Amino acid sequence: MCPEHKQHACLGIIEVNSSCNLDCPICFAGSGHQPDGFSLTREQVARMLDAFAAAEGEPEVVQFSGGEPSIHPDIVDFIEMAKARGVRAVMLNTNGIRIARDDAFLAELARVRPHIYLQFDGFDEATHLALRGRDLRADKQRALDRCAEAGLTVTLVTTVERGINEHELGAIVRFGVGHPAVMSVAFQPVTHSGRHRVFDPLVRLTNADVTRLLTEQLPEWFRKSDFVPVPCCFPTFRTMSYALVDGDGLIPLTRLVDVDEYLDYVSNRMLPDPGVRVALERMFSASAMPGAERALIACESCGIDLPPALKDLWRHFFLVVVQDFQDAYTLNVRQLMKCCVTEIVPDGRLIPFCAYNSVGYREQVRAQLSGVPVSAAVPNAIGLSPLLRDTPQGTKTVEVSAASDTLDARNLGRRLR
What is the pLDDT of residue 279? Predict the structure, then answer.
């Protein structure tokens, strides 16, 4: 990690491949059925996990991503390797197709028990065609039902695109609350990195827009004040709402506990109670996953007067997260310095996720791992359209002179092995 970085890494991402069993119209990684990709070895992943553990001491969360990580032949071994190194929580970021269709793979996941971070964009066929290029509704439902049968917990991950699925956000939360496998929903406004639809940089969805849509579509459940900025990173990057599922309803934690008061207590006291710090930092951080709320319930020294019934109902907690990632139009260095989501690359570097996607690192790493040149990705913005051309990865780039296209070796890092 850069010595100027101001925040430890709550979440480390390892992209195990660039191949995918989909060719989504929207994909910040530019993945798909492409001949020029890469697939990491056990040795590479072992070194990456060791580098993350060395940097963090007690690594909180590792997420295996891609590409589509479920199609990597060693993905189950990778999950076991992360757990063997003491990683508190291991996540599998997947479109769910293999979970829906492969009995043997499901059985292996049931054995190693990762948390499933499942791509889930909505219920309309038009939504699936616009964002994924295929109608995947049956696969998503089957994957979820099979996760429930196998005892695997799930976060639904919704890419939110203006004019496509804004109207489905409330329905997604309702569906998640009612499904036995789902413990949380993460809404991510589209990041205009990699492959994406043409867009107007001045008319884009933000976290505030998503929060507003949730309160409008679920007025009986949420108010804007129920969404709390995560204090470990930049306040505008991620907000979340913990809630208690009560029958068919949902009660946000902010109605039961003065969360702002206790977050201020953690941040501003000279010697904050360590129990409060641990409990609240685990709940309200980028590494928060379903189950983190148990730290608060178990914290005898917190002095937070939770209703007695709440202490017996931790399994009924539900988490809603709204988070966006920076792209070339929104990149803010001060915000980047507080980024707590890091991309782990095979040479051991930890690169802030938004920088990895926005300033050329992704293309450099892919070129080094695949041995094939990768053009710099440029946002598919309306104002740039006359200058853009397609790349083999489906992203956009611009024609540049040979002189200006020369890479500065200082930006490449050590050779990837």
Answer: 52
Q: What count of residues does the chain have?
A: 417
Q: Which pLDDT does position 208 carry in this prediction?
A: 93
Helix (H) or strand (E) holding 353: helix 353-358
Q: Which domains, from first to last, does the chain contain?
A: 1-205+324-417 (3.20.20.70)
Query: How far apart are alpha carbons 361 and 345 in whole angstroms?
Result: 10
Neighbours of 318 (CB within 10 A): 22
Judged by DSSP in three states, 160 sits in strand
The separation between the first and the last C-alpha atoms of the chain, rounded to the nearest angstrom, is 19
For residues 175 and 179, give the distance between their C-alpha atoms in angstroms, rounded to a whole number: 6
Please report which helix (H) or strand (E) contains residue 105, including its range: helix 103-112
β-strands 341-344, 350-352 pairing: antiparallel
Mean pLDDT by 10 residues, the chain (417 residues): 72 95 93 89 97 89 96 98 94 98 98 97 98 97 98 96 96 95 94 89 91 96 88 74 80 74 42 42 50 47 45 67 88 79 93 89 92 89 90 85 47 49
Helices 137-150, 103-112: crossing angle, 10 deg rounding: 50
Across 280-296, b (16+ Cβ under 10 Å) vs e yields bbbbbbbbbbbbbbbbb
- pLDDT value of residue 247: 72
186: its two tokens = 């993460």
As a whole number of angstroms, the distance between CA 165 and CA 158 comes to 9
Residues 228/239, Cβ–Cβ less than 8 Å: yes
H or E stretch covering 344: strand 341-344
Per-residue exposure over 160-170, b if at least 16 CB sit within 10 Å of its own CB, e if not:
bbeebbbebbb
- Written as six digits, the tokens of 265 are 């207590």
Q: Within its chain, how far is the Cα of 368 from the centroid?
A: 25
Q: 265: closest CA among 254, 253, 279, 255? A: 279
In the numeric block, the tokens 């041995």 are attached to 371
Q: What is the pLDDT of residue 408?
A: 53
At how many degrees (to 10) do helices 274-283 and 259-268 cross?
120
Are 296 and 304 in contact by the 8 Å Cβ rule? The answer is yes
pLDDT of residue 35: 79
What pLDDT is stored for residue 237 in this prediction? 77
Which residue matches tokens 């492969």? 102
